[in-house]
Amino acid sequence: MYNHYQMQSFLNTTLEHLKKHKLHPIPENYKVWYEYTCTSNTELNEEIDALMAQQTAISEEICHKLLKKYFVSNEQKDFDAARLAFSHLLNVVISQISNWSSNHGSFCQALEKCTQKLNSDPSISEIKDIITDLTQEAKSMADASNDINSVLGSLNNEVKQLRKDLEQAGSEAVTDSLTGVSNRRGLDERLRNAIAEAQNQHSDLSLIMIDLDHFKTINDSFGHNTGDKVLKLAASIMKKNLRSSDFLARYGGEEFTVILPNTNLKSAVKVADHLRKAISAKQLSTGRNGQIIGRLTISAGVTQHRPQENAETLLDRGDKYMYKAKHSGRNRVISDSDLSSY
């Protein structure tokens, strides 16, 4: 167990690592570097040390890969458990089918023997014996058929449940639990797909990076519960004002990202400004005593995807414009078209 001073030292060192590698202080990056600082995961430390020895830049993408590699989420564990359950079920079915096939072979052999006996001019007593044998074999075959039908019925039900479990696990793995919109993992996956689609179809793709202005002040003045409500409200307003084809994600902390497929820069700037106005139109107050918080504003950076550009570069540029918007007075939108002015 670490004492207060050790934990404070770990915190400071972790933040220094994030600053050194120019990484955003989001939970995913913080987790990787805090564990590295604590030296609690030898393999993680060895891999990061090797990367730094090779003078490899520890990017957001590399941090994400390290997080997935060394820190398995509960959702992933649920996903793996569902897969194992399905594998076990399939083994049971295979076993039942094998038994059924064996019984089917025995039944065919019994039929052949009965046919041979009937062709050899049997007596009435022998015919009775043949009928008895056939009855027993038919019963065994029917029992085997009932067993496999029962198993196949169970399989059908289990597959339906498994599909629901997997869909839920997959959804939870890419959903931000507070706001209900996509999380960083879901964003990374969707952005990669959106870029690939834009390149294949030679279509426009734009991105908005959004930061809630003065959010830290709201948290410090009114508490984290109020801060959480503000985050949920902002996400809800943005979602209502976007197309179904657009994609909203919580990038981390009070930052959000919007992916706009089939949208050029000019249209994307209009979307960002529309979101800015929609959010600032809401007067905020605390639920407890109705204390006025004020109007929430956002700073947004808008950029359009460029040919052969990867997701990391696109996000970085949008992030840079967003910070320019904040440093230029907040409550505004900065885009590619404004670059020459800054």
From TrEMBL:
Cofactor(s) required for function per UniProt: Mg(2+)
Residues in GGDEF domain copies: 203-338
Superkingdom of the source species: Bacteria
Record CDD domains: GGDEF
The reaction(s) this protein catalyses: 2 GTP = 3',3'-c-di-GMP + 2 diphosphate
A GO molecular-function descriptor: diguanylate cyclase activity
Gene3D superfamilies (UniProt xref): 3.30.70.270
Record EC number: 2.7.7.65
InterPro entries the record matches: Diguanylate_Cyclase, GGDEF_dom, Nucleotide_cyclase, Rev_trsase/Diguanyl_cyclase
NCBIfam families listed in its UniProt record: GGDEF (TIGR00254)
Designated name of the protein: diguanylate cyclase
Source species: Dasania phycosphaerae
